Prior knowledge:
The complex is a heterodimer of chains A (112) and B (437).
Chain A: H1 8-31, H2 37-49, H3 52-60, H4 66-69, H5 76-88, H6 94-110
Helix pairs in contact in A: 1-2, 2-3, 5-6
Chain B: H1 3-20, E1 23-27, E2 38-42, H2 48-57, E3 63-67, H3 74-82, E4 86-88, H4 100-111, E5 115-118, H5 136-146, E6 153-161, E7 170-175, E8 179-180, H6 181-188, H7 199-216, H8 223-240, H9 250-261, H10 267-285, H11 289-295, H12 306-327, H13 329-340, H14 345-375, H15 377-411, H16 419-436
Parallel strand pairs in B: 1-7, 2-5, 2-6, 3-4, 3-5
Antiparallel strand pairs in B: 6-7, 6-8
Helix pairs in contact in B: 1-2, 4-5, 5-7, 8-9, 8-10, 8-16, 10-16, 11-16, 12-15, 13-14, 14-15
Amino acid sequence: xxxxxxxxxxxxxxxxxxxxxxxxxxxxxxxxxxxxxxxxxxxxxxxxxxxxxxxxxxxxxxxxxxxxxxxxxxxxxxxxxxxxxxxxxxxxxxxxxxxxxxxxxxxxxxxx
Amino acid sequence: xxxxxxxxxxxxxxxxxxxxxxxxxxxxxxxxxxxxxxxxxxxxxxxxxxxxxxxxxxxxxxxxxxxxxxxxxxxxxxxxxxxxxxxxxxxxxxxxxxxxxxxxxxxxxxxxxxxxxxxxxxxxxxxxxxxxxxxxxxxxxxxxxxxxxxxxxxxxxxxxxxxxxxxxxxxxxxxxxxxxxxxxxxxxxxxxxxxxxxxxxxxxxxxxxxxxxxxxxxxxxxxxxxxxxxxxxxxxxxxxxxxxxxxxxxxxxxxxxxxxxxxxxxxxxxxxxxxxxxxxxxxxxxxxxxxxxxxxxxxxxxxxxxxxxxxxxxxxxxxxxxxxxxxxxxxxxxxxxxxxxxxxxxxxxxxxxxxxxxxxxxxxxxxxxxxxxxxxxxxxxxxxxxxxxxxxxxxxxxxxxxxxxxxxxxxxxxxxxxxxxxxxxxxxxxxxxxxxx
Lengths: 112, 437
């Protein structure tokens, strides 16, 4: 179905980009940690049969890094927000809060 | 309505919510909300949009208490019934009807262990703060409790929008700690449950709900204050680690902004004015907090190749995006005009999606019809399938380009002449904000 006697412009502007987008979506789906396998498969089959779904997938996909999709967040930003709110709610004592904040603030300077 | 079918509907609504909103952050725990009678109370900003979002973020399909006018709209009414909606009558929609029916339905739903969702302000709000919570929510749970339903929890849920009426806005759904009704009644000391007619109990509980909801919902005096406090939140986050991508996460920024707003005077207002000053300086220097933070050595430059992937996607999608723009020029212009209308934002939040749906749908149908007439119905069938692709490609390209632009701007260092002033303003703001926590 693909390369047969179509003008070069169509191949370059339509078919090559479509195939590239398709590859990007497939790779992204395989590497996504937050979807069960059956939903990955559903998207893959859907995106292969129905081209419009490619762009819909890109739109629906949460715009987050893969690490953030994996589950409970443990990056410095979420640890800070959690500590601040726990401290306000009285779940975190003054000492421990101070220590966590100190760690987080110096951590940004020493580690990459 | 079986819960199975409601589960399927919830899936569909989740899909829609992810189309309409760019990023939905959910803060708070939902693990222990899967069973038991719960009345979720939420602030009401964006008309219909709030309902869709909450269906997406709550662990079960809620039964939404909504204005009965919705049931008079042909298709929407049937959908509302299918979703298990509970109609509430408001005096402004016509006098004379009582809400006994609504309360009876709600008691039954809570008795069945359902999750009922109500917007207790009773109005949609334009300002970034809530209206006074009305007594409906308290009467509902006290009445249900008196009719024998045990273990009811009232769950405050705050909905924050980065850009309320905007398509593809970022959103934070902030789920608070539930209020255990039985425990609350016990602390009041009365032997029997007070019931919906006990005015004192209703007023007391309404006050408790109001406080709990204000804690999780946006409750800022005005929009400039919101922006200033968000700037302060960004400084705190940037002090801890550079943004992983071009932008910090909206949920993190907003939660810190809300926390800083709860700081008592005099520290609170001082943070707001320092943040406003810093923000204005950043604007006029055409730079970002990230660039200033890097210049201070507060954070290391992050290394990420994500931008390359985004740039690649933009280039690859560009031909389709251009086609999408050409095909939908008229709808895009009309929707753009409608969203500039000077009407209440809550009205706009309902109007814009409606007009968009209508215009894009009409354009789609018209294009397919004219394609069918000129090139045959095979071509039209292909067009029917490609149209959504072009439109989606247009939105993806626009967003990724904006993100790339933002990223590039964030990296542009301020000039040497401006730097000391910016660093000084930032230092003062950081000191105030960290000190207040």
